[in-house]
């Protein structure tokens, strides 16, 4: 027996059909909707072997091999450091993809990163002027302040400091979907929470983006131009083998830099780090 459910992440609405033996992680189920117009459908099929690779190799990564065929994409999906692949994502048409899933991987689908990797979501979201940003973000007077940096730099830690000292709640602890709309830039929830354990399906306008760096003393300054572009681009999920997606992502980032303040905060993990950023946000 199979289930078919409707989901929406940002403006991307899709159906997902999967066997009852599969249980999507709780973070993913936050994005289930009861109404909407799906533009895409995914179908998960468990199999004993992954052996349906088709097309020309477009790129190889430590955890994936990407194939291209007649404008459609397929992917062998694995884990860094492992030789075997646990899934094969294949686009059947412009609005449908199938995922062949190794049966022995089903228990690992409880991990949101493993489950989300099945759908090439960044490939679909960019059609809605949306980019996945590696960030933790908080609600600051009804607008989002995004903390972005490489893993281990302290994104969720800085967001936690704002809750501890200013009562500002963290919305998502590891990823955000940023989108350019007619009304300005929004950040949407994303079904991956990282080590923070915090994931909410909440959308709000973006107040600012704060790029982080660790330091013994707290300092902050605006960043723009090439420096800001480099910092942001490094934390965006971009299919670098797809030239049209790369160009669109670069265009969106350039627009973002004109329309949203970006800061570089070098900081420790004290209340003074909160105060340092707070003064800049109030200007």
**What is the share of helical residues?**
10-25%
Order of strands, widest sheet: 1-2-3-8-7-6-5-4
Number of domains: 2
Question: Terminal Cα separation, in Å?
Answer: 58 Å
CATH architecture of the largest domain: 3-Layer(aba) Sandwich
Which residues form runs of ≥5 with pLDDT under 50? none
What portion of the residues fall into strands of 2 or more residues? 35-45%
* CATH top level class name of the largest domain: Alpha Beta
Major pleated sheet: 8 strands, mixed
What value does the average pLDDT take?
93
Description of the structure:
- The protein is α+β, with helices and mostly antiparallel strands and 283 residues long.
- The chain folds into 2 domains: 2-119, no CATH class; 128-281, Rossmann fold, CATH 3.40.50.
- It has helices spanning 26-29, 112-116, 121-125, 155-166, 225-233, 243-259, 271-281; strands at 2-9, 12-19, 40-47, 56-61, 64-69, 72-78, 85-93, 96-102, 130-140, 143-148, 170-172, 175-181, 184-188, 204-214, 219-222, 262-267.
- The mean pLDDT is 93.
Task: State the gist of this model.
The chain is of the alpha+beta class and 283 residues long. It is built from seven helices and 16 strands.
Question: What secondary-structure arrangement, pairings included, does this model have?
Answer:
Elements: E1 2-9, E2 12-19, H1 26-29, E3 40-47, E4 56-61, E5 64-69, E6 72-78, E7 85-93, E8 96-102, H2 112-116, H3 121-125, E9 130-140, E10 143-148, H4 155-166, E11 170-172, E12 175-181, E13 184-188, E14 204-214, E15 219-222, H5 225-233, H6 243-259, E16 262-267, H7 271-281
Parallel strand pairs: 2-3, 3-8, 10-14, 14-16
Antiparallel strand pairs: 1-2, 4-5, 5-6, 6-7, 7-8, 9-10, 9-11, 9-12, 12-13, 13-14, 15-16
